[in-house]
Specification:
68 residues; mainly alpha; Rna Polymerase Sigma Factor, Chain: A
Length: 68
């Protein structure tokens, strides 16, 4: 399901990503959700696409995500 705010994101996303990265995740997830409406694996695919978008701008250093 699409997310209206970052507060609705999964705990794993909220707990680990900085606010700007959460916004990227939310926007890309919602876009992918719409784009893959006909697919049975829609939610899983939208999560993969969103994480991929975050990883293009952020890197994980230890347990923190920082801007690349």
């Amino acid at each position: 399901m699409p997310y209206k705010t970052t507060a609705e994101l999964p705990e794993a996303v909220r707990a680990h990503l900085p606010a700007a990265a959460q916004k990227i995740f939310l926007e890309v997830f919602n876009s992918a959700w719409d784009q893959y409406a006909a697919r049975d694996d829609r939610e899983a695919l939208a999560h993969k696409v969103a994480w991929s978008a975050v990883k293009k701008q952020y890197q994980k250093h230890g347990d923190r995500w920082v801007k690349s």
